[in-house]
Write a structure and sequence with these properties.
CATH superfamily of the domain at 5-92: P-loop containing nucleotide triphosphate hydrolases
Order of helices and strands: EHEHEHEH
Shape: globular
Radius of gyration: 14 Å
Strand content: 5-15%
Distance between the termini: 14 Å
CATH class of the domain at 5-92: Alpha Beta
Helix content: 25-40%
Largest sheet: 4 strands, parallel
């Protein structure tokens, strides 16, 4: 089992700064779990970490997707699993940074567990 720290709360309360602090303290890397911060070009109104904040700690799944591309929760779950594997393989510590609605716990489990997304259009089943 992999240990992951989850930081969750509304926009603008300092989650990013706190996550960066923890990343520095515990040799961690941040996995973004915000539905809007994944998109390129959407810098206003998303409280996306700026380039200086991203330079302070490694961020995964932030500012990587063109808004014109289709993307769903199953694809996100697969990429998040891959990021967790990469981080833990390096012996670093994953920090899950979520917004108002945490996409962790039951939601993440439901969208990433093997077989759970089978039969749902647009969802990708997680590799066991």
């Amino acid at each position: 089992m992999k240990n992951i720290i989850t930081i969750c709360g509304p926009t603008g309360i300092g989650k990013t700064g706190f996550a960066i602090y923890l990343a520095k303290q515990f040799n961690g890397e941040i996995i973004g779990a915000d539905s809007m911060q994944i998109y390129k070009y959407m810098d206003i109104g998303t409280a996306k970490p700026d380039t200086s904040e991203r330079a302070e700690a490694c961020h995964h799944l932030v500012d990587f997707l063109d808004p014109a591309k289709e993307f769903d929760a199953g694809q996100y779950a697969k990429m998040a699993d891959e990021a967790i594997d990469i981080i833990t393989h390096k012996k670093d510590f994953p920090l899950w940074l979520a917004a108002r609605v945490c996409i962790s716990g039951p939601f993440y489990t439901a969208c990433s567990a093997p077989g759970r997304c089978a039969g749902h259009p647009g969802r990708t089943e997680r590799n066991p």
